[in-house]
Amino acid sequence: MPAADDRPTIKVAAVSWPGVELEPVATPPAADGGKPTRSRRARLLLAGGLAAALLAGGIGVGAYAYAGDVPRGTTVLGTELGGRSRADAARALRAELERRAAALNAPIVVTVGEKKAELKPADVGLAIDVDATVAAAAAAEAHAVSRLVGSRAVEPVVTVDAARLGAALRKAVGDQGREMTMPTVIWTDTTPKPVYPKPALTVDTAGATDAVTAAWLAGQPVTVPLVEKWPATTREEVDRLVTELARPAVAAPVTLTTEGGSVTIPPAAIARSLRFSTDDAGKVTPRVDVKRLRTALGGKLAKLEVEPRDAGLTITGGKPKVAPSRAGRQVDAAALGPALLAVLPKSTDRTVTAQLKPATPELTEAKLAELGIKERVSTFTTRFTGGLSSPRSQNIVQAAKDVDGTIVKPGETFSLNAHTGERGYDQGYQDAPTIVNGKLVPGVGGGVSQFTTTLFNATYYAGMKDVEHKPHSFYFSRYPAVIESTIYWPQLDFKFRNDTPHGVLIDTSYTGSSITVSIWSTKIYDSVKTEYGPRRNITQPKTVYLEPGPNCISAAGGIGFAQDAFRVIKKDGKVVKREKFSWRYDAEPRFICAPDPGA
């Protein structure tokens, strides 16, 4: 039997106890008008005769009937458990299960909608709980004579991992099913737009669990129908949210007053912060997202608040130096959200009073000291051309500035896209060559991939956990083969996880021709090195002529190849990790900005 665990289970138990009538009753005649059936007479004679025999032999009826923990005449899966102790009954039931092992382990044929699938019982946690079944068999109490001559069949107690079974059934549904369209209200500027609910077409997990369990015990196939499952919030309720809340909310501004002064919240800021959240059951709940409201108000709250500042680290003289934290004073966000939500449906008296409360920084000097950021554990440098005046170089430096000084706590995952946000003109990025669909074209933020590669290598050689990265489609000799990464908002990201017990500081620096990223923490590995396999499947570049113009960028081209790289991490003189990284580079065409001479 599988070991017990704490997974959610469904237990199915059913007990059948046929009544045994020993008192004289009016007996209907047989169909042919003759005497009562032999079986009824035989049961009465057996009961009386056996009782008399036991009494004559000096044995009490009660002593015989109540021998053992399980009432006599009790069977499970056709196996007699009656008259046995619980331990003996459990042994007998396990022996029966061993005899039925082939049938109980056989795949269950399930028809879901119009598709058939096979479920392995072990994969969905189907098993018979022997101890619980014996307990159910022993639990029912009966009259002494009933125990003496009666019989009953007890269904086994079955355990099943409902989550795994549900997942297997949903997989079997495949393209027959459809996802639920969750109701909500969305915004186009300050215009609320209803999103109406639509039902999912899926399986009823609870009913399917019972059906599959019964089919498994019977060794029979089972059909699980597809059913519609509707979200909890109806179309009418969505319309009511629009009419009674969303539209009035943006009909006029709201005044926010504090002891430090007042600010006006315009309808546009209300629309950006009034969210209609939908849970897994499809229930819509309106709320005010104060963080979004703060962003939408821009610097307005800065007149009233003092933002707290976390403690930080800078590298001075080759050592980390603490930049102290600072307490702040901010609007009580926990109270402001519900208070603002309460006045939004009103056409008058649209004023909210909020308190300014002390705001403590998340990272204080004491907490920073506990992170153990004390030494440089890795550093990596890449070089670029064109000096600091070129748009590409400025994009690299801008990304470095955005990331410099970032602290990643133990267990946290760093995302470059999440950290910089969308890299646009307003954020200081410029147009520079970038690869789109296999061609170099001008694009805002071109060159940030070089910073991404530099950051990736710094975290790679610090031994950090690689979560997400994607090498370039073409090989560039300024980067290490395979161990490099591109980035593109929002589809491609670079992520690493700090899987050490210490904090990590990302320190960036640059010159007129290079970018450097260093990782500061507490060193836990002796060394991190890369071993390369040979290049293989080498392909040569083609020559491609492009239409001349300001958007055409020529390229010398390069070979394509596949290669493996192995990150080898040593600790205490032994290899503790050997991780394989593989990539296939396309041959970069030789792009010429000129008419094709052969055309």
Automatic annotation (TrEMBL):
Keywords: Membrane, Transmembrane, Transmembrane helix
Transmembrane helix listed as a keyword: yes
Transmembrane spans: 44-67
Domain YoaR-like putative peptidoglycan binding: 245-352
InterPro entries named among the record's database cross-references: Glycopeptide_resist_protein, Vancomycin_resist_VanW, YoaR-like_PG-bd
Pfam family, one: VanW
PANTHER family cross-referenced by the UniProt entry: EXPORTED PROTEIN (PTHR35788:SF1), EXPORTED PROTEIN-RELATED (PTHR35788)
Record's protein name: Vancomycin resistance protein YoaR, contains peptidoglycan-binding and VanW domains
